């Protein structure tokens, strides 16, 4: 299958490489020409404008948008609309708010263009391990795009979650859970770090990976962070950003009258990290850097 791919950042570039390895043809565009040229070396077709990218695709055209959520995604979709035609498909693989996704689906449907939302998880490790694909949208265009989703995902790592917005909704809740898991690890390791015992936290992480009920990929990444930075994580500032999904999950919990104290408090703890440094925030920052390549602030 041939697809156009817009946005070659930390995840987007690796997703293109995985598609190429899977035998797909990919035309690419990025605001930075240097990034386009870099990924083109792996076999992608470089283009240097959105118009040229669309022109490089056979009809019906399929364009994956992998840019920051919010205004950047909105602007890109608006730019694509006059360039596409009836029967073409746009896939939003970013972390968009599901309310925006439903609205964008209706807008594109008015032009006869299909719209699919693809919640994507895997971070900087997805190239080798695959990306968990949480997809929402109308059944027919989703089915047509399945060769792409199945290539990006590991075995059993793709699901058509439901109607438009369902993919981004499931990804939103996924990230809310992620907030809570990371916070629990951060607090536990702070207790260990400040205890009377001189415990090697990297070794504890590795130990807990061996049959423990708290083993997980996040715990494995915590071990990587402690091995790289030491128990004190001295080179990492405990300043932790949030990219929106945690807030949206908390708001949805409120709207549905669902008590979600752990996810809510983990979000508020991130706000706290921006006011004054804390050890648990250092762990959170280290974990985000390990699994997603997110920037850390040096001391």
Please describe the structure with a list of short key phrases separated by commas or semicolons.
299 residues, 8-stranded mixed sheet, 13 helices
Distance between the termini: 47 Å
Number of helices: 13
SS class: alpha/beta
Give me the side-by-side strand order of the main sheet: 3-2-1-4-5-6-7-8
Average pLDDT reading: 96
Please describe the biggest sheet, giving its number of strands, its sense, and whether it closes into a barrel.
8 strands, mixed
- Principal-axes geometry comes out as globular
Low-confidence stretches: none
The portion of residues assigned to helices is 40-55%
Radius of gyration: 20 Å
| Element order: H for helix, E for strand | EHEHEHEHEHEHEHEHHHHHH
Portion of residues in beta strands equals: 5-15%
Number of strands: 8
